Each structure stands twice: as structure tokens, then as C-alpha cells.
Amino acid sequence: MNADEHPVNDAPAGAELERKIYDAEFVTDDTPRPAPSGIRRWTPAGRRHTRTRIARWLAGLLRRAWQSSPFVRARSVAAYRMRKLPMDVARLAWFVARGHWRWLVKFWNWATYADLRADARSARLAGNTEARRTAQELIRSDAKARWAKVGIAVRRIVVAVRVLGPVAIVLWATDSWLDRADMWPWLADVYTGMDAVWSVLTVAGPIVLWLAPLAWLVAAVFEGRDKTPGAGWLVHPERDDNDSWIDERMISVALAHLGITPLNRFFKDGGALAYTVAARKDGDGTYAQIRLPLGVTADMVAARRPTLAANLGRASLETWPTKGEEDGLLDLWVADKGALNGGAGDWPLLTDGQVDLFDGVPFGLTQRGLVINAPLIGANWLVGGRPGQGKSACLRTLLLGAALDPTAELWVFVMGESPDFDPFTPRLARYRMGMDDAVAEAALQGLSDLLEEMERRGKVLGQQPGRPPKVSRKLADQRHLGLHPLVCAIDECHELFQHPKYGKQAAEMAIRLIKRGRKYGIVLLLATQSPTKDSIPREVTRNISCGVAFSVADQIANDGLLGSGKYRAGIRATDLRMNTDRGTCVAVGVTDATFELVRTFYVPFEDGTDDVSPVIARALAIMQETGRQIQIQTPDRLEIDAAPVDHLAAIAAVMRDGRRVRTQVMLSRLAEHNPAEYEGWTFADLTAALTEQGITPVKSHGNMAVRSEDVTAKLTARAQDTTGEPGGESDGEDTETRGGNPRTSPSRNPRSDQRKHPSGEAGEAHSRLFDTPENPRKHGVGTSAPDPLPAVDSPDDWGSDDG
Ligand SMILES: Nc1ncnc2c1ncn2[C@@H]1O[C@H](COP(=O)(O)OP(=O)(O)OP(=O)(O)O)[C@@H](O)[C@H]1O
Where does the record place the FtsK domain (predicted)? Predict the structure, then answer.
């Protein structure tokens, strides 16, 4: 109790007790409760309590802010800078000194024409009188111009002093003799204005005088700075964040230590690289574009990729220096550390969705993390790489996408014992797998049928209104036309192209399909372990539109898959590590970019996991919904003329009525005449072929040449041998139907694959899929049939037997 009035017991003894009122209040430690009336009473204890709570809250807030990452970072930067302060001061002093030195050097160069003198000196050493004279004349004329400029400046100063001097004297005299009040008002205003200017000058002058040395120092520091862009060292104390941090300065430093002489010289002379695109975040990495200095090309940088990667603290695979639009432009993409290790994730169509092949098939993720919709229509693919790196899986993904387009017809030939495509069986119109000759034969038959189909489609397209140049979705949807997408995949295709009996023809047909089939919705997907020039025809690699290289061993394999010159330009699948980078490939032609580093989607079919079959089941359901059916095709046995190319006939054809043809000219004519056979032939090959035919080249005007009479004599002798008659005229039966040699006359011969099938049924039987009564595919096109395709390419593509 806190009583401030007198207690009852204080009354004197015997005094009458009188009533008193006590004023008191109870004080406890409890929080004061609000007054019931709603009027808040602030007691001192309550105030203390509130203050304590606010103080605690503020302390918590400050502690949290202090420990928050921006503050921690700012503190660490500040602490770091404090520690580095002596070093920074020394550094700035060094910059000031170096800046003055550079100014001095610049002034000296300017004053003495050092650059022009150096030019003149080197011209004299090189004995180039013209260049020396030009440099000397330039020095003379420039010196003249320079002195002329000085003269003009001096004259202007003199004129200004002459004009302004008397005016200033008159103004001063007037102001001294006359009171301002007695002046004309305008003159008084002039003086007032001048006074104002003068007061500004008296205030600003000292400030400028103080600031000028500071500005001078800053300018000297700027001039003497390290001439590498960016100021990363100010804000990135340690390179602890180099996992993802790449800036222009780091790139410049990395480039400066590549050991490329002109680049080293450039940096030594204080040069600063020009960044046409400053380093910026691009997907899972950093992209920059750099204009390289004189004497340096992007290829030179690409050739030192491992060093560049090491300088940037990355793996080679994460560092992509490639040629930009010009040789002197370097495109550099550097992946965030470890960003490429993760797979591409689930295939987007794994559980749901349908495909329109004209829009492409989800295939993988680019280095920038974007999904690639791989083009299939209008494209042909060559997929390659070392064993077990993901080729078949990639082919499978493309085919799975195609399977989800109900209009697509799929053929698969696997030239080896591999069950990779077994789950596709119910969705495939043709499927053969195995190592025996029968599979090679079936694949060749497939190619031959595709050529026929291409011919038919050419005809159909030509009959459509407006003669469309290629198959479109709209045309493909019209079932009666039979222009639906037709995708043929050949896994381990090198086995087919190297087949002793069928290889040559298969190569020839594949080349023609690749060159011409794209327009007609016919797509060829080839996969191989061995992309060398012996295993894959050069014309195939040259004309393929989408090249995909998983890890490959060398430059030859790299360029065989991606196109020649790619390795030199820095587009290298050789940097993909065997097994570690399984499923990652370098691809060209799949997007508009020069190349893509793709992490392909993987739909497993191994070790008891089968995600392929459910997709195929879905594909079949979609087909059923849309009323499409698959008819499994069982082609009859192939009757393909596997006869070797008739060199004598080809030689006769390229003589072109000439008396003699130089062997060199003959080689180029032969390559033109039948590129699949003769491109790449050397003089040794030609000599061997001539010798085989019993023809010896003769010397003519210092060059080796083939005589027309020799060739004609050999042809006549051969004809006599064939017919058993002198003069050797044909008995009316086409030589080819006897399995013999093609005609040597300049008339157009049919190609083997355009010849009649032995039975009309064979063609009918194996080409039923998606056929309609209105437009059945015709097989066994007559030898005399005119070229049915619109004349879109050179006729040589069709008739290499042409004379
Ligand atoms: N995109 C991918 N993501 C993850 N793993 C993959 C991927 N592609 C392939 N693999 C793995 O690599 C293994 C080999 O793949 P695949 O059979 O496609 O290789 P390949 O190059 O066709 O081999 P081969 O030349 O022997 O036929 C697969 O079983 C799978 O484990």
C-alpha cells in the first residue's frame, strides 16, 4: 500500500475520532490493464515496459539486418578493403606515376611523329621505297598543318587582345570617372552584370584551383590504370564466387594468358579489348562477344580452348569459344560450373501429348536450358559418336516423337543385334534387326522403295493446284494423296554402307534420298559409331541437314558428323568425355544457331525399365482415334542389280566426242557425271581403271590424255564379246535386263532402283501402308518413264548414267 495521508492511529489520545478519506493506490508488478472506461492510463511501470519491448524489438531488427547477407557481404567487402588499403594506396600511386609516364610517351610520340617515323623505318628496312616516301611525306605535311594551326591560334589571340583590350580600358576608365547613377541605365546594367560575373569568378576560382589538382590526379590514375575492363576487383574481394561469376575483366585476363603472340603484344601495349556484347547471363552460363585485335582470329582462340578453360576456372566442356559472324569476332559462352552435369530431365511427351511432325520433336535442352524442338520434316539426320554414348537413345527419342504423330509412317532398320527398337514394333510399318545379309538387303530394298515413293510424291505434288514445291501439313493430312511424313531410321548405318554386296548401291540411294527426299516429307535418320569417309559416303555427310555428335575420338569423326571446318571453328564433340557426358551431344542444324550443346532427353529402355512401350501404346491409341491403321509390310525378296559401276561406259560418256581428253579433265568430268562413284578419285584410281580396261593414257602436249579411239575400240570389243557377233549390235533386249552393263550410248538409262520389279505384286505388297485406292504407290516404274519429278535440282542427281 502506498498511502500519502495520515493513518488513523496518529490522532492524539482522547481526541474524538473523525472520519478521514485516504487517497492511495495498489502497485503490483503486473502489466497495467486498460481502464475499463476505454481511457488508457499510462503508468510509469507500463511506460518502462513498453520502452523495454521497443528496445528489444529494435535490437532484434538491427541484429537481423547486421547478419543479413547484403550486410555480411558489405561488411566483408569493407573489411577486405580496409585490409587492402595500404596496397590500394600504393597501387593508386603507381597508377598516377604510370599515367604521367603514358602522357609523356603520348606527347613525345605526337611531337616527334614517332609512329610515322617507325613506319618509315620499317619501310626502309623492308626496302619499300614507296611506303617510306609516303610516311615521310605524311610527316612533312602533318608538321606543316600543325604549325599552321599554331599560327591560326596565335593570330586569333592577338586579334582578341587587340579588340577586347581597348574595350576593357574604356570600360575601366568610364567606371573610374563616372558615378553609376550618372550613367545611362543600359551602361549601368552592363556594369552590374560584369560585377555579378566577377563575384561568381571570385567564388568559383579558388574552388576550381583546389579541384584542379584532384581532377589531374584522377585523370592520371585513369590513364595509368590496368587497361582491362570492369572494376571487378573493387567488389569481388576473393574469387569465392567464381563458380558462376564471369566478367569482361576475367575474360580479358584469361585471353591475355593464352600464349597467342599478337594478343600478348596487344595487352602488353596497354590495349583494351572491345566487347561487342558485354558479358551477360545467358541460360546456365555467361555469354560475351569480343572483337579480337589485329592478327588474332577466333579460330586461334578456339584452338587453345583447354588453356582458356583453365584460365577461367572451368572444364573444357564448359567453355565454348567459337567463331562469330566474322573471323575476328569471338563468341564465348561459358557454362556455370557444373551446370551441364545434370541431365535434361524427363521427356516432355513421356506421359502425355501428341506431336505434329511439321513442328518438330522435343529432343533435348540447349546449353542455355531451352527445349529444342528438333526439325524432322525437311531435314535428314546423321547421329554419331563412340559406342555407348547415347546414339540409339537419341534416335529412339526422335522416333518416339514421330510415333506420336498419327500421320507418320515409320520404318526402322537396325544393322546389328540390338533390341533398342523392339518396343516400337507394333507402330512400325517395316522393322528389321540383325547382322545378317538379309537385313542389309531389306534396308536396301527400303531405300529403293523410298526412292520410288519419292518419285510418286513428286508426281502427286506436281498435280496439285499451284504446284506446291514441298509437302505441307495441309497436303499431308489429305489421306488420298499419300503425302504423309515417312520416317526411315537406319541404326549402325555404316554396316550397310560398307556391306560388300549392297553397300555401294545403298550409299548411292541414300545420297539421292538425302538430296531430294526432304521436299516430299521423306526423312532419313542415320546413326553410326563410325563416321569416317570410308564408312559414311562423303556426299551423305555433306548434304545432311542435322548433324549430331556425341563424344567422338578425333577431328575426322567430328567433322564427318558436323561438317568440315567445324573442329577448327571450335565446334568440337571431342571435348565431350566418354561416359561422363553420355547423352550430351554437339548438334548443328537443329536450330538457327551455329551449333548447340544438347543434353538429350532420355526415355529409358534397359535393365527392366521400359518407358518406351507406354508411349508406343499411346501412339497406337492416337492412331486408332484418328482412324489410321498400320499395315505391316513384308517386302518381297529384293532383286536389285548389285552390278559394279561400268567404268568404261562412264569414260566413254565423258569423252563427249572429243578426240583426246586430258586425264585431269576426265577426273573432274567423271566426278560431275557420277559424284557418288567418282568424287574423290585420284589419278591413281583413274589409271587403275583404265589399265583394267586395257587402255593406256598417252602423252599429249606434255599432259597425259585418253584417246577416244582407244575407248571406242574397247567398247566395240566388249560388245562383240557380249553378242558373240562382229559389230556387236544388241539383239533388241536391253543390256541391263541381262544383268550386264548399262548402255554406252548417250541416251538416258534408268537407274537400277528405277527398274521394274520382277513381279508386279512385290511392289504392291510392300507399299500398302497409308495407301488409298485413288493413289496407290506404283512400283516397277518403266525404264522409259519420263522423269516425273519437277525439275528442282540438277538432272545429274537423277541420271548419273547420262552420257
Ligand atoms: N540422354 C541420356 N541421358 C542419360 N543417359 C543416357 C542418355 N542416352 C544414353 N544414356 C545411357 O547410355 C547408355 C547407352 O546408350 P545407347 O545405347 O543409346 O548408346 P549408343 O551410342 O547407341 O551405343 P552403341 O553404339 O553401343 O549402340 C544407355 O543405356 C543409357 O544408360
Answer: 367-559
